[in-house]
Design goal:
The complex is a heteropentamer of chains A (561), B (369), C (311), D (336) and E (340). Chain A is α+β, with helices and mostly antiparallel strands. The longest helix of chain A is centred in the C-terminal third of the chain and has 19 residues, at 504-522. Classes of the chains: A alpha+beta (561), B alpha/beta (369), C mainly alpha (311), D mainly alpha (336), E alpha/beta (340). The complex binds adenosine-5'-triphosphate (2 copies) and magnesium ion (2 copies).
Chain lengths: 561, 369, 311, 336, 340
């Protein structure tokens, strides 16, 4: 593994396009222009909440890595800015066979990777095969592949059986890449717009040993491809990662096939503290940042900043672990809890503008949405009577909530808990509170079914119901432990079947049915809200299109003044 | 001070070789034989190694008879305190034995030793610091009694406490007070009363009056001698003030660098000091009489006491001795030998010096130009 | 080595100069000095007020600290919290709870954190310090190596380390986390004192008297070693309160929603500090004043019992 | 002297060894951890198991420890998983150490520059208004939580008044060359004055916030120590010799009074680290303190390990150096 | 007797402390010293010896006390001199040595510097010559190997050498008056003898005036020309040393001499201590402070404060209403014969 990025940065001679310096024309005018910070018109500085893991999106799952990767790379398709709908990217068009198993992508002509090599069908197939061929540490890291596609080529499960995969192969046919699948899935082609499915330069991948991920004790060591030489075909090129100053610098790719990036330099300044990001924006030292605290929206707007609210593409739910607390096995109890929660008051008092009470487990922008499901209005008396009917007037629930975390669907877990705890108590339920750090017992405990009631949610990756409820309930040993209920397997089968329906309309209809059953008969959890996350930029920034998938592309962004 | 009885009676012959006889002598309460206390000097890189020793006490033999007062004098750092503590086994001796009333104290295990301590007590130099500031006089006095199962409760206990206080000349009201509420002399009386509380036979008093002003010093000295008369106590009194030692002791040992250099009855010692060091010491003590001061002959010693960690070879005193003779004094360590009955001296030339056949070297004078 | 005589004499002169012939005890003479120290009095007044508040505060609170009485006037999206109004002296917090009531109730929690953390740290330190100081030798070496390791980790890290061990961060875990960081401090202090006591004349005297070793340790050495420990405790209460606040700031503080603690309130108010400074201001002021009170008290006590400062 | 240094260093090795065991065992027994950090809310039991076996986390803890130790001895502490994921943890430490050194060094210098003269001044006017005032100020410095002070400073001077940058270490797109990794020094070395000045501007507020506690401690120890020394016999002797006030002050009082100040300054490095965790977090300053804070929330064990061990080492080494310095100043130790 | 070099008149020092009545440590002390003369101040701990000497040198703390009276040094009143001028005189015209040689030396400054700083200050010498002079000074007070010692630090010297170094410093500018405050208390007798010899030579060969402060009557007997016995801040008896020891008149002086076990006395003899302790004192304003402890107390003692007046031979002053009768035969007569 090579890890001398820091020393690399420190040993370069001054002036010669040093990684730490801005490579743009303004470099010549030196200090006075530079000290203007975020003010320089051809440099856009974005406040990132954390450091990217590395720059090969195949191995990443986190937003900070993806945010950078999205500027450097493109996939066969991408999402239309501001929506979750696919549009052409490196492929200009695509079609699938009737059974949904064969997908043919027509490649765009004349596109070059940053290293000057050509983007073609062979390169596309090379990438997909590379993903499929991951082994060892690489396989554990390529999660978006395993999540969506299942297994890898040589992967065996504990019993020594090959792990099934959706992916069957990819053939380059002139300027067409033909991808074959083992079964139809709703995930295609949307999944190809994910950063992990980016098409990267085969030359560079090979030259810099891109697959050489090593597991070491607690962590992974990445090859130099991922740390120093990411080579995509996106509007920006990777320039440097200055760890001493916590900045990632990208520069414009002048050979980009589409509209060239509007700013010559794009800098991600890593500022872990949310408050610090806000203050930097206020002080003018950055041009924008992600996920402003909803409480700050109005203040930021008043101060002339542009708070771009993304369409809500997430859901917050109160999970009910089936089979843990015997009382929860009773549908009446689950219904009572649903009635007990004053979701509307919570949404108005604690969630940002634009947040809505959710009746099903995904937002209305997702295909197969319906609001024609059983609704559980806030009604304490009803809750009490349901509990009484169930013989659970003295119900005690073990309610878990996470600390050290803020998610787009749950900006402040404590306030969620505080509100719902009061609601449950009002319905005569005794609440035993357990708070644990998000990654410090909470997730692990919830996965291990230790909680009766817990707070969790999901942000969608792409536009399919499967990405939401499929993820939640397809497995029967999921965190709600639905397998312990008679309907758990039923629900799982319905979801699998729906996902495999090639026809979109039929598929959507199937999902509507599933949602109705979930709301009326199952209630494995209570959907609470969809809450829109925002991104904020300075007043002089134009061209930022907020994306429900947080897939903002900065090439279109420019600054005045 | 009534002590004529012992004074006139010379001790039986006790040369080093016959020391064992002394330990068996029923009249001898305390017998110290070739006692050594070497403090290790530790230093080391990771773990401390012993790189040398402070020869604080280096081969002391002496015997104290019942009812007698034995005085120890010597300059600062010569090992008096260490010797005193080693006798009570408050420091572990490196070598040699201490017999108390025929029993080998140096071989006692913890519990027997603790019980033995009832019979041997100590009075400390600094009256304030040797009293626990947080204990009332009553509990200070009772502590020892309790430790040795002497009744402390009820009328008997109270009576005993009053008796103790009156023995050292303190009012009964002192019982409820704390050490800091007393003057120096009174504190020292408390220290003495504490030692007396367990009804010991032997009291080792380590510079009991050094920290006191002369007028108070006299009071305490009187208390000590009165108690001896009344209770038949045996004392080992350590002091650096020769006048005090002479005043209260029957016999006196002079220490230099961890060893006895001379031992005699106090009358003998002051009348006929035989070791050059004793002579120098006596000549240096200021006497509050101008006539004496003006006329006396001074033996000025050169330099300071050598370090006990690195004592001189041969006679320890040869580096400062005005009578030093070539080679023998430098090479051969003199033993404490009997010069006259009951008068032991550790000097090769003691007889010659006493006879006046050996003259001191000219003393180097300290002169202002 | 120059004569113990001299030392004793000096002490005597010292006591003469200072105590007007009649010696007075450590604390009595400290009191003589404290009487005229304005810093001490300021500290004492603050602490008395604080302790009183902690005792009666929760009873005075007009509302339950957990009730979201003002939730209707609260909106995160508009960044609104309930303003001060009749019955709600300082308005509501972000959850629509009465800020004033929370401050009042918080005083007791805060005192608990400070005092319990100190007591716990003190107990741990006492045990280690007494072990090391009473036995000496290899026990001392082992104990002190442990203390060295603990001391070489900056205290807050230690606290963080302990805090993350608790899967359910609440007041108890904060107290324990803060207490652990104080253990080495107390252990060191006490061991030093104990060692000094071990060599002291009055302990030697007790040994000479044949007092049993256990009694020597607990009747003589420990009581005489405690003064600086007591003073240190006062100071540690202050640092405990501040450290607890720091833990809250790092998100590791108590998460108990029903029993507010000032540090926790301050930590929670961080992200609203510019729009609603009052949320952070009140708990911060309370913490600062109380910490200052304990520090003033501790420092003036320290100065007063320090023989060196008697000149 | 050499012996002493060697001894301290050997002790350090021992301390670090014990510390590394404790740390290792402790971190591995925390709830959550690397696997959860990597998998997040996408974890499934199979994936967890797979990841655990790939990382060797399913092996007995002592096996894991000795593997770790073996690698650590070659300087390989693993890769960061949260602070700067994928970067060598030691590298993360080293890069960030420079930042913390700049911050801590500046703070301690500030504390010394203010603390010593004021401490002396207060001691000379013991009991006066000025003395009491300074004591109260220093105690308030101790009583105000560091993070709150940092917050206030930032809010007032950076956000409200806009005088100084609110966070970070250097303006990102400034034309600066890295030489030593100490930004202020780098600018001076390469004559990029603006880069130095920019780095200094980023440091001023953190310096002030971080310096308060060391200042208070140094002030008080100086004051106490001057009070003590000025009552010493040798000062009276110096007075009796008719020496001038300035000679007495510099040669006799201060030279002696500085001895405890040296020791305390060394001990303050520990406190500085604590302060740095808070200060750096508030000012989003990429030093080891921030690395630790982030590392703890993100369960970045490699970074936590290397930072804690290295800062313990730094603490011990600094104190050894301070002790040596002490010996240089105090002949009683030097010539022993 | 030659013209007095230093004349202390009615020196009074009071210490003020918050909350308690002012404490008079030195109460109207007067005495004089001439060149070549040694005047002793003796008394028990706390009687005001040190405070007297510090007041003369004006070394008492700037606050917390008040000093009155005059200290006439060759016609100038030291007490009314500006502090700056006083600094110029200290170390040059009048010097002082203290009891504890270790704590009186700066532990972190080499001996050489501590000696030369006086030379540089008062004699305007440069470093080099000052060092040479310092070497000679150390040599002259009997420190062996002075060149090496100059570079050493106080802790490397033995007690006796430290005291010699202090004396060397005091003598650096050839002061005409030397005040020695218990210079030998911290030293062993053999070393004490060395230092006393050194001081004696100093006075006889250089005509330096010496104020010797001690609690040890023996030291006084061998060194001083005139002796002042202090009690509770006042001089209670003053006489030539022969006169004083031969014929002590004040009951306090008498008591002191009686309570000392003497090398030349009878060993068996019971000591006759002064009863009580200093804490039994009454204020001088209510009569004689010593009265409560005095064996010769009469009614007058508790009513009228006695004055310091001639009570025996010329120059023998005492402060007593009922002085001790003259001693018939000198107590140590026989021993004196023996020794001589
Ligand atoms: N615990 C100890 N460890 C090491 N050295 C010691 C110890 N106790 C005493 N010494 C050394 O032993 C020597 C004799 O000490 P001791 O106290 O017995 O002398 P002393 O004659 O009582 O002197 P002083 O008159 O000063 O009380 C001294 O050099 C002293 O430094
Ligand atoms: N700085 C001071 N503040 C208050 N009282 C003082 C101070 N210095 C001395 N005294 C008092 O003045 C009295 C005389 O003290 P001084 O030091 O002169 O005694 P001394 O005769 O030198 O005694 P010693 O022989 O013990 O040195 C003492 O009772 C003491 O309490
Ligand atoms: Mg001794
Ligand atoms: Mg004095």
């Amino acid at each position: 593994a090579s890890s001398d990025r820091g020393s690399d940065a420190s040993s370069t001679a001054p002036g010669s396009g040093a990684p730490g310096s801005s490579a743009s024309g303004s470099g010549g005018t030196s200090g006075s222009a530079g000290s203007g910070g975020g003010a320089a018109a051809d440099t856009f500085i974005f406040g990132a909440a954390g450091a990217p893991s590395m720059f090969d999106p195949l191995y990443a799952t986190d937003g900070e890595t993806f945010r950078v990767a999205r500027q450097i790379n493109e996939g066969l398709i991408k999402f239309t800015p501001g929506t979750a709908d696919p549009e052409p990217a490196l492929a200009t068009s695509w079609e699938s066979s009737a059974d949904g198993k064969t997908w043919t992508f027509t490649m765009r002509d004349g596109v070059k990777f940053h290293d000057g090599t050509t983007v073609d069908a062979a390169a596309a197939c090379f990438n997909l095969d590379r993903m499929y061929n991951q082994t060892g540490a690489g396989a554990t890291q390529a999660q978006y592949w395993s999540d969506v596609m299942g297994g890898f080529k040589d992967q065996k499960d504990d019993a020594g059986q090959p792990v099934p995969s959706l992916y069957a192969g990819c053939q380059a046919d002139g300027n067409k890449a033909v991808i074959t699948l083992n079964s139809s899935t709703s995930k295609f082609p949307g999944v190809l717009g994910l950063p992990s499915y980016s098409i990267q330069s085969p030359t560079a991948l090979q030259q810099y040993d891109a697959n050489n991920v090593q597991a070491q004790g607690d962590s992974f060591a990445y090859p130099s491809y991922a740390t120093e030489h990411p080579t995509g075909a996106g509007p920006y090129k990777f320039q440097s990662y200055d760890q001493a100053n916590n900045t990632v610098t990208l520069v414009r790719n002048d050979d980009y096939y589409g509209d060239k990036a509007k700013t010559a330099t794009l800098i991600f300044k890593i500022i872990p503290s949310e408050t610090a990001r806000k203050q930097e924006l206020q002080a003018g030292t950055i041009d924008g940042y992600d996920l402003p605290n909803p409480a700050d929206w109005s203040g930021l707007k008043d101060a002339g900043f542009q708070v771009e609210v993304r369409p809500a593409f997430n859901v917050l739910y109160v999970g009910l672990t089936q089979g843990n607390n015997p009382a929860l096995a009773d549908l009446k109890v689950r219904q009572a809890i649903a009635h007990a929660l004053n979701r509307q008051q919570f949404v108005t008092s604690q969630l940002p503008e634009g947040a809505k009470v959710a009746d099903i487990f995904y937002p209305d922008t997702v295909d197969g949405y319906t609001d024609d499901v059983t609704k559980y209005d806030y009604d304490v008396d009803k809750a009490k009577s349901l509990l009484a009917e169930a013989g659970q007037s003295n119900l005690t629930l073990n309610f878990w909530w996470p600390t050290e975390v803020s998610r787009p669907y749950m900006p402040d877990p404590k306030s969620v808990f505080t509100a719902f705890k009061a609601d449950l108590e009002a319905a005569g339920i005794t609440v035993n509170e357990t708070s644990k750090p998000w990654n410090g017992g909470y997730l692990d405990g919830v996965e291990a079914h230790q909680a009766d009631v817990f707070l969790l949610g999901w942000t969608g990756d792409y536009n399919t119901p499967d990405n939401f409820i499929g993820t939640f309930f397809t497995r029967t040993d999921n965190r709600f432990n639905t397998g312990t209920q008679p309907w758990g397997a039923e629900l799982s089968d319905q979801l699998k079947a729906a996902d495999a329906i090639p026809d979109k309309d039929q598929r959507d209809a199937a999902y509507v049915e599933i949602n109705k059953k979930i709301a009326a008969d199952y209630i494995p959890a209570i959907p609470i809200s969809n809450s829109p996350p925002a991104i904020v930029v300075a007043g002089n920034v134009q061209g930022l299109v907020a994306s429900p998938l947080t897939d903002e592309r900065f090439a279109s962004v420019s600054k005045t003044g | 001070m009534e002590k004529g009885a012992h004074e006139s009676e010379p001790l039986p012959d006790a040369p080093a070789a016959e020391q064992s006889a002394i330990t068996r002598d029923a009249d001898v309460l305390l017998a110290v034989d070739d006692l050594k206390v070497h403090f290790p000097i530790r230093r080391g890189v990771l773990f401390d190694r012993v790189v040398g020793h402070v020869y604080a006490v280096d081969g002391v033999s002496l015997a104290v008879r019942r009812g007698e007062t034995y005085g120890l004098v010597g300059e600062s750092g010569c090992g008096k305190t260490t010797l005193g503590r080693a006798i009570l086994r408050l420091v572990e001796p490196t070598g040699g034995t201490v017999h108390f009333d025929g029993e080998d104290v140096s071989a006692l295990k913890a519990e027997p030793l603790r019980q033995m301590r009832q019979r041997m007590q100590m009075v400390f130099q600094d009256p304030l610091s040797s009293l626990d500031p947080r204990q009332s006089v009553q509990s200070i006095l009772e502590e020892g009694m309790r430790a040795h199962g002497i009744a402390t409760a009820g009328g008997a206990g109270t009576a005993r406490l009053k008796e103790l206080l009156s023995a050292v000349g303190l009012p009964t009201s002192a019982l409820r007070k704390f050490p800091h509420e007393f003057s120096g002399g009174q504190r020292q009386r408390i220290g003495i009363a504490r030692a007396l509380a367990v009804e010991p036979d032997l009291i080792v008093a380590d510079e009991p009056v050094s920290a006191l002003d002369v007028s108070v010093q006299a009071q305490v000295i009187n208390v000590l001698s009165d108690l001896q008369t009344d209770l038949g106590l045996t004392y080992v009194v350590i002091a650096h003030d020769l006048a005090v030692v002479r005043h209260i002791s029957d016999r006196v040992g002079v220490m230099y660098l961890g060893a006895l250099v001379e031992e005699a009855t106090s009358a003998d010692l002051y009348a006929e000091p035989s070791h050059p060091y004793t002579r120098a010491l006596l000549s240096a003590v200021p006497v509050p009489d101008p006539l004496v001061e003006d006329s006396r002959e001074r033996i000025l010693l050169k330099g300071d006491l050598p370090s006990p960690a690195n004592p001189p070879s041969g006679c320890r005193f040869h580096t400062r001795c005005p009578w030093r003779q070539p080679t023998r004094c430098d090479d051969e360590r003199p033993v404490l030998a009997e010069l006259a009955p009951g008068h032991r001296v550790a000097c090769h030339y003691a007889a010659e010096i006493a006879a006046g056949t050996l003259q001191p070297h000219a003393v180097e004078t300290d002169a202002i130009p | 080595m120059v004569t113990t005589y001299r030392r004793a004499r000096e002490q005597r002169i010292d006591s003469l100069v200072n105590d007007e012939d009649k010696g007075t005890s450590l604390w009595a003479s400290a009191w003589e000095r404290l009487k005229y120290s304005p810093l001490f009095w300021i500290g004492a007044v603050i602490i008395t007020a604080f302790v009183l508040l902690a005792i009666i505060g929760p009873f005075l609170a007009p509302h339950s600290p957990g009730d979201q009485l003002l939730i209707g006037q609260t909106s995160r999206s508009r960044n609104e919290i309930a303003p001060a109004q009749p019955g709600f002296l300082l308005g509501g917090d972000t959850q629509g709870r009465d800020l004033f009531s929370r401050l009042l109730v918080g005083s007791r929690q805060t005192l608990l954190v400070g005092v319990l953390a100190t007591l716990l740290g003190l107990t741990g330190g006492l045990i280690l310090g007494i072990l090391a100081g009473a036995f000496g030798g290899w026990v001392d070496t082992v104990v002190m190596r442990i203390v060295d390791v603990m001391l070489s980790i900056p205290s807050l890290l230690l606290a963080i380390s302990i805090a993350v061990l608790f899967t359910n961060p609440n007041l108890t875990s904060v107290i324990i986390a803060v207490a652990v960081t104080q253990i080495p401090v107390f252990a060191r202090l006490l061991r030093g004192q104990m060692l000094a006591q071990r060599g002291s004349d009055h302990v030697l005297a007790a040994r000479a008297l044949g007092v049993k070793p256990g009694a020597i340790v607990f009747r003589h050495m420990v009581p005489n070693s405690l003064s600086p420990v007591i003073v240190q405790s006062t100071l540690v209460i202050a640092t405990s309160i501040i450290d607890a606040a720091a833990l809250s700031f790092l998100g590791l503080g108590s998460q108990d929603v029903d029993s507010p603690e000032w540090g926790q309130m301050l930590g929670e108010a961080q992200d609203r500090i510019d729009s609603h400074p009052g949320l952070a201001f009140w708990p911060a002021i309370c913490i600062i004043v109380v910490a200052l009170g304990f520090t003033l008290l501790g420092e003036s006590l320290r100065e007063a019992i320090d023989p060196k400062s008697r000149r | 002297m050499l012996r002493y240094t060697v001894r301290r260093l050997l002790q350090l090795v021992l301390v670090l060894f014990v510390l590394s065991i404790l740390l290792f065992v402790w971190l591995r027994n925390l709830p959550g951890g690397t696997v959860t950090a990597i998998l997040g809310d996408r974890a499934t039991p199979e994936k967890r198991a797979e990841l655990e076996s790939v990382l060797g986390l399913d092996q007995p803890i002592f096996v894991q420890y000795f593997k770790f130790l073996g690698r650590a001895l070659t300087g390989d502490f693993g890769q960061s998983t949260g602070v700067a994921p994928g970067t060598d943890a030691l590298q993360v430490f080293l890069t960030r150490f420079g930042a913390t050194v700049e911050l801590a060094f500046g703070a301690i210098v500030l504390a010394l520059l203010l603390g010593i003269p004021l401490g002396y001044w207060a001691a000379r006017r013991k009991g006066g208004v000025l003395d009491s005032g300074l004591i109260v100020v220093s105690l308030v410095g101790i009583a105000v939580p560091v993070f709150f002070l940092a917050f206030l400073l930032k809010y007032v001077f950076a956000v409200r008044m806009g005088l100084l940058p609110p966070s970070g270490r250097q303006t990102p797109n400034i034309d600066a060359t890295r030489v030593t990794g100490l930004f202020v020094l780098d600018g001076l070395l390469t004559r990029e004055w603006d880069a130095s000045w920019d780095a200094v501007k980023h440091l001023i507020l953190p310096w002030i916030a971080l310096a308060t506690i060391p200042f208070a401690v140094i002030f008080r120890i100086t004051r106490a120590s001057v009070l003590e020394v000025q009552g010493e016999d040798f000062v009276r002797t110096a007075e009796a010799k008719g020496l001038t006030t300035s000679t007495i002050r510099s040669r006799h009082i201060l030279r002696n009074a500085m001895l405890p100040v040296i020791t305390v300054t060394g001990l303050q490095t520990g406190a500085l680290l604590v302060g740095a965790v808070l200060t750096e977090t508030v000012f989003a300053y990429p030093g080891i303190g921030e690395a630790l804070a982030v590392g703890f929330t993100k369960k970045d064990y490699p970074v936590i390990q290397v930072v804690v061990i290295a800062s313990a080492a730094a603490f011990v080494i600094i104190n050894t150096v301070v002790d040596l310095l002490y010996a240089v100043v105090d002949p009683r130790i030097r010539t022993r | 007797m030659t013209e007095a070099l230093l004349r202390v008149e009615d020196l009074t020092v009071r210490f003020h402390r918050r909350g308690v009545a002012p404490m008079t440590a030195v109460d109207g002390v007067s005495f004089a010293v001439s060149p070549g003369q040694t005047v002793g101040l003796v008394g028990e701990s706390g009687c005001g010896k040190s405070v007297t000497s510090l007041a003369i040198m004006r070394l008492l703390a700037r606050r917390g006390n008040s000093v009155s009276g005059t200290v006439d040094f060759e016609g100038t009143d030291l007490l009314s001199l500006p502090l700056r001028a006083m600094r110029d005189r200290r170390g040059r015209d009048l010097a002082m040595i203290f009891q504890d040689p270790l704590s009186s030396l700066n532990p972190v400054v080499p001996i050489g510097v501590q000696v030369t700083e006086v030379l540089e200050r008062h004699r305007g010498m440069k470093r080099g010559p000052a060092m040479r002079e310092a070497r000679e000074l150390l040599d002259s007070v009997g420190i062996p190997d002075p060149s090496r010692r100059l570079k050493e630090y106080p802790h490397q010297l033995s007690g006796g050498m430290r005291q010699r170094a202090l004396i060397a410093m005091a003598l650096a500018c050839r002061p005409r008056l030397l005040i020695a405050d218990e210079p030998t208390t911290a030293l062993d007798v053999t070393i004490q003898a060395q230092i006393l010899t050194l001081l004696r030579t100093l006075v006889t060969e250089h005509g330096t005036a010496l104020i010797m402060i001690t609690h040890d009557l023996g030291v006084v007997a061998g060194l001083c020309d005139e002796v002042n016995v202090l009690y509770a801040g006042r001089v209670v008896e003053r006489a030539d040393r022969h006169e004083l020891f031969a014929d002590p008149r004040h009951p306090y002086t008498h008591g002191l001499l009686e309570s000392i076990p003497r090398l030349d006395g009878d060993p068996g003899e019971r000591l006759t201590p002064i009863v009580g302790s200093v804490s039994d004192n009454i204020p001088w304003t209510d009569g004689c402070a010593f009265a409560p402890r005095c064996s010769r107390e009469i009614d007058l003692c508790r009513q009228v404060t006695p004055k310091l007046e001639r009570i025996a031979a010329a120059g023998h002053l005492g402060r007593c209403h009922n002085p001790v009768e003259p001693v018939a035969a000198h107590p140590a007569e026989h021993l004196r014969k023996e020794l001589s």
